Amino acid sequence: MNVREVIAEFVIEPGTGKAIELLKGQILRVEQVEGGQCADFNCFNLHDYKEFMHCGRTRTVHGFNPSKGSFLWSAPPRERALLYILEDTYGRNDVLFPRCSAYVYESAYGFDAHTSCQDIQAEAQREYGLTPDDVHDSFNLFMCTEVTLDGRATITRQATKPGDHVDLLALVDVLAVPNVCGADVMRTSNFSLKPIRLTVFEATPAEIDAVPKVPLLKSQRTPKDFRNPNVKATRELRRDPSYVAEFTNVPLVLQELSVKLTAEEAAALQRVRLPVYGDDDGAALRDVLFTWWEEKFLGTAESGAPAIGDR
């Protein structure tokens, strides 16, 4: 069967969001109705809300603007792919900016009651027993952001059109929570608020087969691996008198490793080494090797580092 089956359809109006049980193999389409509208997105493991989509891990793997072909990862120590971006007709999303909040609007604009992604998400998630504390940093769909050369993050206007959409394929059962971003006093949604259309599909076998395979690693730990698997039932923090520290690989053992370079290799290292390492040849060499590894296997390199072609 190569035609998607429609399971459910919703239109969420400005100021609202919707918590949706999105099962493994289902697709959530977040679609522009009028164009020019940002949508914030939270996501939790449907069977364990303490596993949730993590903007930090996602941007480490896919950069500030994940798009088609990117995964949405959960936070450490789980660190597994929860969703896959199967399609993205606009190609601009953001995992850099945090969700807008009531504090932002009151502190910056004097509005003590204003639509905000924090409050909208909290209300939508309340249907499943979650609290405002459970709202996490948003995956900001259709949000155009940039980082300037001096390190400032900025939001620019967007040019989405009606019908532009992002298709998110669930790799595990999740609670997906999209909302219409509440920011109407900034460029996020071009200074206005508009509805968003949501459609849940059953993915076709071909779409599921098209998802790249990701490894299952020993370091991806779940509650069965935790020394304390219990979720606290109270908010007050108290010391456990029976606690004994068990840190990984502690005490650390340092071992010196000698690397012999030919005269030609040593000269090449001197040409590309960065001044920050001073006389530390070992750190300078590790930097060069790590930058090469980034370029070769991740397709990225730290800005300002010598390109592999310069070596």
Any low-confidence stretches, pLDDT <50, length ≥5?
Answer: 301-311
Structural class call reads alpha+beta
Radius of gyration: 23 Å
Strand fraction = 15-25%
Brief sketch in words of this structure:
The chain is α+β, with helices and mostly antiparallel strands and 311 residues long. It has helices at 55-62, 102-109, 117-125, 205-209, 263-272, 281-298, and strands at 5-12, 20-22, 26-32, 39-45, 48-52, 71-73, 81-88, 93-94, 139-141, 144-147, 153-156, 165-170, 174-180, 196-202. The protein is globular, with a radius of gyration of 23 Å.
Give the helix/strand layout.
Layout: E1 5-12, E2 20-22, E3 26-32, E4 39-45, E5 48-52, H1 55-62, E6 71-73, E7 81-88, E8 93-94, H2 102-109, H3 117-125, E9 139-141, E10 144-147, E11 153-156, E12 165-170, E13 174-180, E14 196-202, H4 205-209, H5 263-272, H6 281-298
Antiparallel strand pairs: 1-14, 2-13, 3-12, 3-14, 4-5, 4-9, 4-13, 6-7, 7-12, 8-9, 10-11
Describe this structure as you would to a colleague.
With 311 residues, the chain is α+β, with helices and mostly antiparallel strands. The protein is 19% helix and 24% strand. It has six helices and 14 strands. The strands form three sheets. Strands 1-14-3-12-7-6 form a six-stranded antiparallel beta sheet. Strands 2, 4, 5, 8, 9 and 13 form a six-stranded antiparallel beta sheet that branches. It starts with a strand and ends in a 13-residue tail after the last helix. Residues 301-311 have low confidence and may be disordered.
